[in-house]
Automatic annotation (TrEMBL):
It comes from the Eukaryota. It holds the Pfam family LRR_6. The gene is Lrrc34. Gene3D superfamilies: Ribonuclease Inhibitor (3.80.10.10). This is LRC34 protein.
């Protein structure tokens, strides 16, 4: 085999040897990779075999397809990323991937989001990562691994010292699993970012948030934490804030889609007066209202100079609170990204944010609104920007040109590659 083998030809031969029909989409992706400038291969390439690609005909990847593909990539050192999102891989496919992970020493990025991998598949992949010392970023998003499957990842975090970013959002995890993961992260020193969005919780006691808070008191490596849809209330926010007084590493906190009111935001505002580490705060789809927005604006205007991005989308805030936030941006030059759509805009709000944009204080690629005028009155139109613009999807036509509105902004430690 040459240093840069012809991937497509290798794939055709592997299909013939296995008596397996070729998947034309895999063949197309490998052919495109072969056309690339081979000098790029020294840095590693990511094969994007996503089943939701709308630009070319897609035949979704099956378990048998993956088995052949894994044999092709087995000794291919320049493939460092593999995007298999939105295909039809099951636990059998997870077994092929687990075998590959145990034998491969170059893959750094693996995206398996929205396949049909269940509990046993999660176990196989998690166990493979006990020994794998290469993979840095794993996305299991949307696979119904359940509470038991999540427990295997919790065990893996006690053994693995390489993985930096783990996405277990929308995986139907439960209370036991979340507590186990939080406990594992008190000792794990390698994970920089974790997504625990939308677990299935049946208690109102917020035990999981309490354990996450205890973890934050002891963890000094976690940079990014997603706790969206955790049924979190003001009590939980208070526990997190208590922990973050002692934490100096967390830079991105996502507590969107919870049940936080202005009373919970009061604790957060007090934290922001002293915390100089948080850079991104996502409060999207809570209910902080005007009082909560004013608490935040006071902290940001007078004390905090570290927060760079704030989302208060859909929080039942009216003009009084929104104008207060716009005023805070006039004195706080560090706050560069603000997302406000879904609140109650009045004329004062439209004028305030129009002035920020027209003076150049707020760039249009750093917010989700744009001013326009009708009959002498200013209004705000929605722009499709936000902190998680490319969480569930990425543009099919090439790379993301503008990373300002993407989930990780400038946090390079947890980038895709």
């Amino acid at each position: 085999m040459s240093i840069h083998p012809d991937l497509q030809q290798h794939y055709v031969r592997a299909c013939q040897n296995a008596g397996q029909p070729e998947n034309p989409f895999i063949a197309h992706v490998l052919q495109e990779a072969d056309k690339n400038d081979k000098t790029r291969w020294t840095k590693g390439i990511t094969l994007k075999i996503a089943g939701n690609n709308h630009l070319v005909p897609v035949q979704r990847v099956t378990d048998d397809d993956l088995q052949v593909l894994a044999s092709v990539l087995h000794s291919t050192v320049f493939v460092t990323g593999l995007d298999l999102r939105c295909n039809v891989l099951t636990d059998a496919g997870a077994e092929h991937m687990a075998t590959f992970l145990q034998e491969n020493s170059t893959l750094r990025y693996l995206n398996l989001m929205f396949n049909d991998i269940g509990t046993s598949g999660a176990e196989l992949i998690a166990r493979a990562l006990h020994r794998n010392e290469t993979l840095v970023y794993l996305r299991m998003t949307g696979n119904k691994t359940g509470n038991k499957g999540g427990m295997f990842f919790a065990s893996m975090l006690q053994m693995n010292s390489t993985l930096e970013k783990l996405d277990l959002g929308d995986c139907d995890m439960g209370t036991q699993c979340l507590i186990a993961i939080a406990t594992a992260l008190t000792q794990n020193k390698s994970v920089k970012a974790i997504n625990l969005n939308r677990p299935l919780l049946y208690s109102q006691e917020e035990e999981t948030t309490v354990h996450v808070a205890l973890m934050l008191k002891n963890n000094s490596s976690l940079v990014e934490l997603h706790l969206c849809k955790h049924e979190m209330k003001n009590f939980g926010v208070e526990r997190l804030c208590e922990a973050l007084y002692e934490n100096s590493s967390l830079r991105y906190l996502d507590i969107s889609c919870n049940k936080i009111t202005c009373d919970g935001i009061k604790f957060l505002a007090e934290l922001l007066k002293q915390n100089q580490t948080l850079e991104i705060l996502d409060l999207n789809a809570n209910r902080i209202e005007d009082d909560g927005a004013i608490y935040l604006s006071e902290a940001l205007a007078l004390n905090n100079r570290s927060l760079q991005a704030l989302s208060v989308v859909s929080n039942n805030i009216s003009g009084k609170g929104l104008v207060a936030l716009s005023d805070a941006m006039k004195t706080n030059m560090e706050l560069s990204y603000i997302y406000i759509w879904g609140n109650k805009f009045d004329e004062a709000t439209c004028i305030a944010f129009s002035e920020l944009i027209q003076t150049g204080r707020l760039k249009t690629n750093c917010t989700d609104v744009e001013p326009y005028e009708v009959d002498g009155h200013l209004h705000l139109a929605e722009l499709s920007h936000g902190l998680k613009k490319h969480y569930y999807w990425t543009p099919s036509c090439g790379e993301v040109a503008n990373k300002d509105a993407n989930a990780c902004l400038a946090i390079a430690a947890v980038s895709e590659y």
